[in-house]
């Protein structure tokens, strides 16, 4: 995988993980173009598209788009499973995760991703093990100086990833 | 006074989200950035982590955060885990390997790789594996290698992927990881297994030696895969009833690489592949992901044919899957295999064709490409029906490619000429504006060569024009055809379908309509003007055509103006040449390249020369006149130039063989009459001003003048000179005189040259040779003979009533011409023929 982007339906970036070295300007350009392209896709279209010399795999979960760029020899269908696994991990960690969780706890979203993928490849295929590692690491946090996981007061405009629960249990 | 504590991250996020405008947000951010900057200046350790976290949030919103880079390094160096966590995250987000500052991380990472807490080690491995530069990798590869051998699976799996990154950055370091790979696959831990397979894959992909070395792992890999499939439910790794699909897919991929090109390995994995292919649950995406990878592996290794058929059938089933992603993947794979397993893929043709109607753009495109790959002589009719229907309804992006594909397929497999023309018509009328520019000359050539379909083609094209003149390629092809075959159109000769009744005026109305229409491009206008001009020799409405042509002599469009002026000149001064110039085009030979053939390009439509210039060596003649020429010349080394229907007075041709070789002495022939004795009405090299090429200045003629033909009162003499500026081109001026009592009208001089020659015939002074030697016709011929081939010359005369072969032939030999690198530029050719026969050298 070359990079993963999470963005809202309005095109606001919620997470960006780059596994290839690019300068800020290039990253911004790619992000802008890709977000535009994916948002323009109609619901009936498939989850894959060719973009530049990469294969783009994307899937929408409630109000968030999860978008990965993979290389020619990578398996698109399993990438969909990777995306799904990540969403499951977030869901387990945050408890019925929604976009707001990821907005207010973006650094946690990164930590979870970094326990699941490394250098663009899956490092751990057991859901349990990933979550265990995060929990253990969290215990090392010195509560005096860091932001602990505050519960986010539900805001009137919060979008829920309620559909996640369904997809998780039936997957 | 102590500064107030910087606000917490969540609070900042909440605050920024309350901003109602971009400007408001920017203001908040700037304020906070200022606060953060001063906090950084204070070297406050307590809140550094919080501040950097806030900075990272603002960075994600798109604001600059470079001033936090050094702070990240300080956080990494801190002893607090929280600091390190945010510091490494910040490094991964804000730093990239182009910046020198990231090198400062190297030492910290090195220390952290050896930290007592595995989670700290994990952070270091993750960061290195994500964004480590080549230098960092070089420095730290040893540490990574050490960790690759640890028994701690948490670290081992991370080290494996970190090693993958190191190898990608510094391929030479691959060797050092080899020992550590020894028992990677004996691990029970799936994380380690998965990352180990990834590492092995990377190494095998990069090095053929590694590949051979690791082939021995095939049995072990097969065993692991087998266990995954056969083992019972494992909650930890289960995904919809399948045990660790991620690992299965990676193993299959590694097997693909190991089995490729290797019989033994391929055989060893044959069974397991069959097993996976038949037993995997296909109801969910995860099962299909595994099947997909299996199919790719089967197709790539040396699998037995039964297995291959199984794989293609899986793809065929995929095509019927409701899930469009699966269909997409199937089409992609089928495209890859259609060349090698053509017959197997053919069996799924109808399903593939159905995918043309899919809603997804990518699926449609693949289905289209695959359809073209599957077209053959047997299914052409059915397939073309589907493809034409697709062309009608597809997105504009597709139309150009689809049209080109259809033309190609039609050319290769057309069952009949009529079908071919019909198909082209269909494409032009439905997608005429999307057709590629080079299709127009290709189509023109195709139509020209389908001689028996001319009437039908022109009729259909004419009808199409009546309907719609907006599609330029269609209009251009139609204009060209009407210009060529307009006579067939008005005479109602069509056999293939009901001939339409159309008058000359109606046809001219249409063509003139094109000239004035806003829809016509300048190129199209050029086509239609030339078509109108051509009709002057096929229609009788000469005055109307003359009028049109003269009107456009003052057109604003320079191209059009030039054409009109030249056509006008043709009417006024060169009317005798007009019929021959504008006669029917001969069949054109297609050149080997895919591009437009040269002959078509010199059709006169794409350049502004007045005549339809024809490229010298590549035309083959369909008419019997040409055959006559060839017969005399005997052999394939002579190519006649152009045919003409213009006869001269009947005369029994004859002459003597003159040999100009040797010391310029003429043997066995009549003494040449000196050129000066022939009265000339015009200077021999007067050109009509349509060419700017200077003829020649006098340079000492090496070859003396000679009489080429002297029979029945007609004497043709040649005078020779070398051309200046290019002395390697011989310029021959012919003088024809007529001592009989009657004028010789419609005198035409024709020339044919061997392929190695280049010939340029300039306009004759006249085509009437006046009686009683009262004048002469002169004509200039320029000859280039780069290969110094000796040639003979055979004059011949034609008669309208009979094509007689002259019983006495008088060829003569032209002196060797010096080799020259210059080529005569393709200029206008006159319709004169002189036959030359290449002598054996």
UniProtKB/TrEMBL annotation, chain A:
Domain AP complex mu/sigma subunit, first and last residues per copy: 1-138
InterPro entries: AP1_sigma (IPR044733), AP_complex_ssu (IPR016635), AP_mu_sigma_su (IPR022775), Clathrin_sm-chain_CS (IPR000804), Longin-like_dom_sf (IPR011012)
Pfam families: Clat_adaptor_s (PF01217)
Cellular compartments annotated: Cytoplasmic vesicle membrane; Golgi apparatus; Membrane, Clathrin-coated pit
GO cellular component: AP-1 adaptor complex; clathrin-coated pit
Keyword Ribosomal protein in record: no
Keyword Transport tagged: yes
PROSITE patterns membership: CLAT_ADAPTOR_S
GO molecular function list: clathrin adaptor activity
Keywords, ordered alphabetically: Coated pit, Cytoplasmic vesicle, Golgi apparatus, Membrane, Protein transport, Transport
Quaternary data: Adaptor protein complex 1 (AP-1) is a heterotetramer composed of two large adaptins (gamma-type subunit AP1G1 and beta-type subunit AP1B1), a medium adaptin (mu-type subunit AP1M1 or AP1M2) and a small adaptin (sigma-type subunit AP1S1 or AP1S2 or AP1S3). Binds to MUC1.
Functional description taken from the UniProt entry: Subunit of clathrin-associated adaptor protein complex 1 that plays a role in protein sorting in the late-Golgi/trans-Golgi network (TGN) and/or endosomes. The AP complexes mediate both the recruitment of clathrin to membranes and the recognition of sorting signals within the cytosolic tails of transmembrane cargo molecules.
Protein name: AP complex subunit sigma
Organism expressing this protein natively: Cyprinus carpio
Lineage summary: Eukaryota, Metazoa, Chordata, Craniata, Vertebrata
From TrEMBL, chain B:
Subcellular location: Cytoplasmic vesicle membrane; Endomembrane system; Golgi apparatus
Claim: Transport is one of the keywords in the record: yes
TM regions (residue ranges): none
GO BP term (any one): intracellular protein transport
InterPro entries linked to this entry: Adaptor_Complx_Large_Subunit, AP1_complex_gsu, ARM-like, ARM-type_fold, Clathrin/coatomer_adapt-like_N, Clathrin_a/b/g-adaptin_app_Ig, Clathrin_app_Ig-like_sf, GAE_dom
Main location: membrane
Keywords, ordered alphabetically: Cytoplasmic vesicle, Golgi apparatus, Membrane, Protein transport, Transport
Membrane-related topology note: Peripheral membrane protein
Domain of life from the UniProt record: Eukaryota
GO cellular component entries: AP-1 adaptor complex
Pfam families per record: Adaptin_N, Alpha_adaptinC2
Domain GAE: 701-816
Similarity comment: Belongs to the adaptor complexes large subunit family.
Name the record gives this protein: AP-1 complex subunit gamma
């Amino acid at each position: 995988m070359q990079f993963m982007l999470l963005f809202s339906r309005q095109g606001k970036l919620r997470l960006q993980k780059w596994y290839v070295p690019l300068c800020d300007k290039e990253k911004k350009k790619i992000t802008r173009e890709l977000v535009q392209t994916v948002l323009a896709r109609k619901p009936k279209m498939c989850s894959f598209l060719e973009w530049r010399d990469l294969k783009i795999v994307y899937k929408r979960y409630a109000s968030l788009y999860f978008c990965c760029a993979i290389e020619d020899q990578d398996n698109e269908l399993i990438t969909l499973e990777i995306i799904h696994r990540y969403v499951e991990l977030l869901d387990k960690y945050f408890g019925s995760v929604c976009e707001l969780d990821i907005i207010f706890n973006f650094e946690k979203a990164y930590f979870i991703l970094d326990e699941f993928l490394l250098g663009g490849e899956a490092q751990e295929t057991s859901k349990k093990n990933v979550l265990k590692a995060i929990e253990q690491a969290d215990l090392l946090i010195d509560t005096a100086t860091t932001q602990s996981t505050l519960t986010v007061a539900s805001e009137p405009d919060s979008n829920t990833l309620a559909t996640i629960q369904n997809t998780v249990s039936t997957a | 006074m102590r500064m107030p504590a910087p606000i917490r991250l969540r609070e900042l996020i909440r605050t920024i989200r309350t901003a109602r405008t971009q400007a408001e947000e920017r203001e908040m951010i700037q304020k906070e950035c200022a606060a953060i900057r001063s906090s950084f200046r204070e070297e406050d350790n307590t809140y550094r982590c919080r501040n950097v976290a806030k900075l990272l949030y603002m960075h994600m919103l798109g604001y600059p955060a470079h001033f936090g880079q050094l702070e990240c390094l300080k956080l990494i160096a801190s002893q607090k885990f929280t600091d390190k966590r945010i510091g490494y995250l910040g490094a991964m987000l804000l730093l990239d390997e182009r910046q020198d500052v990231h090198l400062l991380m190297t030492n910290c990472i090195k220390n952290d790789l050896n930290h007592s807490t595995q989670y700290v080690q994990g952070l270091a491995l993750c960061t290195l594996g994500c964004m480590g530069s080549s230098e960092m990798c070089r420095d730290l590869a040893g540490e990574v290698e050490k960790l690759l051998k640890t028994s701690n699976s948490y670290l081992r799996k991370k080290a494996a992927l970190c090693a993958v990154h190191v190898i990608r950055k510094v391929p030479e370091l691959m060797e050092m990881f080899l020992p550590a790979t020894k028992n990677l696959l004996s691990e029970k831990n799936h994380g380690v297994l998965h990352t180990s397979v990834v590492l092995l894959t990377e190494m095998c992909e990069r090095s053929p030696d590694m590949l051979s070395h690791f082939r021995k792992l095939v049995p072990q890999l097969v065993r692991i895969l087998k266990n995954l499939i056969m083992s019972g439910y494992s909650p930890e790794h289960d995904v919809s009833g399948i045990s660790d699909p991620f690992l299965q897919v990676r193993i299959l991929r590694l097997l693909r690489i190991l089995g490729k090109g290797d019989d033994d390995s391929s055989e060893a994995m044959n069974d397991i592949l069959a097993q996976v292919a038949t037993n995997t649950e296909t109801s969910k995406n995860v099962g299909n992901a595994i099947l997909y990878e299996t199919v790719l592996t089967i197709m790539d290794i040396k699998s037995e044919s039964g297995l291959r058929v199984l794989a293609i059938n899986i793809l065929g089933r995929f095509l019927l899957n409701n899930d469009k992603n699966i269909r997409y993947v199937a089409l992609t794979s089928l495209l890859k295999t259609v060349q090698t397993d053509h017959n197997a893929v053919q069996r799924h043709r109808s399903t593939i064709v159905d995918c043309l109607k899919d809603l997804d753009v990518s699926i449609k495109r693949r289905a289209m490409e695959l359809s073209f790959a599957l077209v053959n002589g047997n299914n052409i009719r059915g397939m073309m029906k589907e493809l034409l229907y697709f062309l009608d309804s597809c997105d504009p992006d597709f139309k150009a490619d689809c049209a080109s594909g259809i033309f190609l397929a039609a050319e290769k497999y057309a069952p009949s000429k009529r079908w071919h023309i019909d198909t082209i018509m269909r494409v032009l009328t439905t997608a005429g504006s999307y057709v590629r520019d080079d299709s127009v000359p290709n189509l023109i050539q195709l139509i020209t060569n389908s001689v028996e379909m001319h009437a039908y083609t022109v009729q259909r094209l004419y009808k199409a024009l009546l309907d719609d003149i907006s599609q330029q390629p269609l209009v251009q092809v139609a204009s060209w055809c009407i210009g060529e075959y307009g006579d067939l159109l008005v005479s109602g000769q069509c056999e293939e379908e009901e001939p339409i009744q159309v008058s000359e005026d109606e046809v001219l109305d249409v063509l003139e309509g094109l000239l004035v229409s806003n829809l016509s491009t300048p190129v199209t206008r050029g086509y239609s003007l030339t078509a109108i001009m051509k009709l002057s020799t096929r229609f009788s409405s000469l005055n109307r055509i003359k009028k049109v042509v003269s009107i456009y002599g003052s057109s604003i469009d320079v191209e059009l103006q030039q054409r009109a002026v030249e056509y006008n000149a043709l009417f006024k001064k060169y009317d005798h040449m007009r019929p021959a110039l504008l006669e029917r085009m001969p069949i054109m030979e297609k050149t080997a390249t895919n591009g437009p053939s040269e002959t078509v390009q010199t059709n006169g439509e794409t350049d502004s020369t007045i005549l339809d210039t024809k490229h010298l060596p590549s035309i083959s003649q369909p008419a019997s006149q040409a055959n006559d020429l060839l017969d005399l010349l005997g052999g394939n080394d002579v190519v006649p130039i152009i045919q003409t229907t213009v006869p001269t007075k009947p005369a029994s041709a004859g002459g003597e063989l003159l040999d100009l070789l040797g010391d310029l002495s003429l043997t066995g022939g009549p003494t040449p009459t000196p050129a000066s004795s022939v009265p000339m009405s015009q200077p021999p090299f007067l050109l009509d001003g349509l060419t700017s090429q200077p003829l020649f200045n006098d340079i000492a003629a090496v070859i003396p003048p000679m009489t080429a033909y002297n029979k029945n009162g007609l004497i043709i003499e040649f005078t020779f000179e070398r051309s200046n500026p290019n002395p390697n081109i011989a310029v021959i001026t012919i003088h024809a005189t007529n001592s009989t009592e009657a004028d010789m009208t419609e005198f035409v001089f024709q020339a044919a040259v061997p392929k190695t020659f280049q010939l340029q015939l300039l306009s004759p002074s006249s085509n009437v040779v006046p009686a009683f030697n009262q004048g002469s016709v002169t004509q200039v011929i320029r000859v280039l003979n780069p290969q110094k081939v000796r040639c003979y010359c055979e004059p011949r005369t034609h008669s309208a009533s009979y094509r007689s072969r002259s019983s006495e032939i008088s060829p003569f030999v032209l002196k060797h011409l010096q080799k020259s690198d210059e080529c005569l530029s393709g200029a206008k050719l006159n319709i004169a023929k002189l036959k030359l026969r290449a002598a054996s050298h």
